[in-house]
Write a structure and sequence with these properties.
Elements: H1 10-17, E1 22-24, E2 27-29, E3 36-41, E4 46-52, H2 56-75, H3 78-94, H4 96-107, H5 111-130, E5 140-141, E6 148-156, E7 159-163, H6 169-182, E8 186-190, H7 197-208, E9 216-218, H8 223-232, E10 238-242, H9 245-255, E11 261-265, E12 271-274, H10 280-292, E13 304-308, H11 312-325, H12 344-359, E14 363-366, E15 384-387, H13 394-397, E16 404-410, H14 413-421, E17 428-432, H15 436-445, E18 450-453, H16 482-485, E19 486-494
Helix pairs in contact: 2-8, 3-5, 3-7, 4-5, 5-6, 10-11
Length: 496
């Protein structure tokens, strides 16, 4: 396996060789407790480097640094903020390969995907938000009282906290850093303990770009300590969280202490629906990637595939053949399509669901086994497909966050709408049909924050993204997100 692995850049080797610290107020500091933790390479199970295990004391320091930096950053001319954020995006671009390698090593995902997709999406997001400071406007109002000028100002909320998951560390970070800083806020980012490395590098690049110390701070550490301290902090004005529904609920409760603004992008169990009037070959290919991209560790994974009975066997056969042909292995191997799962814990969780699927009577069509041989040290699972799945089975109802697809059969449009919507989640949905009216009926009927028609898993920095129900509230991406990073102030001026 080692022959075909891409060489690790000297800059990445140097980065990994040092002890990682926290970036607080522009300073490179160990955790106040002195505690550290190892971040592992999920392709090998081996440690990559050690990171500072920040906790409440470090979050306090970081929030104080962010507060101290706030007034000057908020007061900067919008065009100056734009220039600095663009310079940051330029540096991300200049360090693309390094960031992508770090992500592949820390998360396991194929380098080709990290380099050609994820880092470009992250840069695109930074550029989109870099352009916004000069476009944040208020309005004037035609009040029905004589002699007044009434207008609104959009002011930054203050200090923001961002808590990110491990599945798309770069993108999840930039979609919070971008709007927070563009609006004139300062930020403390707590990346996932499984993938802290690119967040540290981003904060270093932000400093190098000239973004003042304290504007963007990073505290690495665990959720229950560093994360919980950030969400409960009295001097944090907004928290943006992406992660599990259970943690999202805990964050909403803890944020109530000072009524900070909260946006939550949580779990999903997204339906992908194939009607028999669709381009079935294209739909099958889309369904494959809808579930297996990022090894299924994707909040919008199309994990419930509803196929109309008339084309069910055809779709299932195509999918099974494609899934068996996917190449699973180290993300450093350029020919690999799927990397490992993030951790032993995650592998066991997902294998637990595979066991449940079989025990509850679903038919295992392909996969279900951990990979051995050269890959035995990592957390690799075969792409797995279950057929004859019923709605009430655990594999059809719960978020698995792994490469496990449930295929379900349906007869009619009304039936599939009812079944697709019978979930506590509401993040994403996909519909494949060539019937124009049906496409729009489905888009309106499905309970989801995003509906993809004859496609799946597309994002753009300009398009809002977020969920309904237990998939969370608030939206990320798009210009409207600035509503969540600014306070709207009404000003009444007596002019007569
Ligand atoms: P996953 O199950 O996918 O690991 P989590 O929701 O547990 O997702 O983690 C997402 C992020 O939330 C990580 O950065 C993690 O450290 C953080 N986190 C976990 N528990 C808490 C908590 N109680 N309070 C704040 N953040 C938390």
């Amino acid at each position: 396996m080692t022959d075909s692995l891409i060489p690790i850049l000297p800059s990445v080797q140097t980065f990994l060789a040092r002890a990682q610290k926290l970036l607080i107020g522009g300073e490179w500091l160990p955790a106040a407790s002195g505690e550290t933790f190892a971040t592992l390479n999920p392709a090998t199970g081996q440690p990559l480097t050690r990171c500072a295990a920040g906790d409440k004391a470090d979050v306090d320091r970081a929030v104080a640094a962010a507060r101290a930096a706030f007034s000057a950053w908020a007061a900067l001319m919008p065009a100056q903020r734009e220039r600095l954020l663009h310079r940051f995006a330029d540096l991300m671009e200049a360090h693309k390969e390094e960031l992508a390698q770090l992500e592949t090593l820390d998360n396991g995902k194929p380098f080709n995907v990290a380099f050609n997709v994820e880092i470009n999406v992250a840069i695109g997001q930074m550029r989109f938000y870099a352009g916004l400071p000069t476009k944040i406007t208020g309005e004037t109002y035609p009040v029905s009282s004589p002699g007044f000028l009434v207008y609104t100002r959009r002011e930054p909320v203050g200090v923001c906290g961002a808590i990110t998951p491990w599945n798309y560390s770069l993108v999840m970070a930039t979609q919070k850093i971008g709007p927070a800083l563009a609006a004139g806020n300062t930020l403390v980012l707590k990346p996932a303990e499984q993938t802290p490395l690119t967040a540290i590098r981003l904060a270093e690049l932000a400093l190098e770009a000239g973004i003042p110390p304290g504007v963007f701070n990073v505290v690495t550490g665990f959720g229950e300590t560093a994360g919980a301290a950030l969400t409960a902090h009295y001097d944090v004005d907004k928290v943006a969280f992406t992660g599990s529904t259970e943690v999202g609920k805990a964050i909403a409760r803890s944020a109530a202490g000072n009524l900070k603004h909260v946006s939550l992008e949580l779990g999903g169990k997204s339906p992908l629906i194939i009607f028999d009037d669709a381009d079935v070959a294209a739909a099958s290919e889309a369904a494959l990637w809808a579930i297996f991209a990022n090894s299924g560790q994707n909040c919008v994974a199309g994990s419930r595939l509803f196929v109309q009975a008339t084309v069910y066997d055809q779709v299932l056969a195509a999918l099974a053949e494609k899934a068996r042909a996917l190449k699973v292995g180290s993300g450093l191997d350029r020919s690999v399509q799927l990397g490992p799962l993030i951790s032993q814990v995650q592998l066991e969780r997902v294998m637990g669901y595979v066991g449940q699927g079989a025990a509850q009577g679903a038919a295992l069509v392909t996969g279900g086994e951990r990979l051995g041989g050269d890959l035995a040290g990592g957390y690799f699972l075969q792409p797995t497909i279950f057929a004859d799945v019923r709605d009430e089975m655990k594999i059809a109802a719960e978020e698995i966050f792994g490469p496990v697809l449930s295929v379900l059969s349906f007869e009619s449009e009304d039936e599939v709408i009812r079944r697709a919507n019978a979930t506590r989640f509401g993040l994403a949905a996909g519909v494949w049909t060539n019937h124009l009216g049906r496409a729009h009926r489905m888009a309106a009927a499905l309970k989801a924050g995003v509906v993809w028609i004859n496609t799946y898993d597309w994002f753009d920095p300009s398009v809002p993204f977020g969920g309904m129900g237990e998939s969370g509230y608030g939206r990320e991406l798009g210009a409207d997100v600035m509503d969540m990073y600014t306070e709207l102030k009404s000003v009444w001026v007596k002019i007569e």
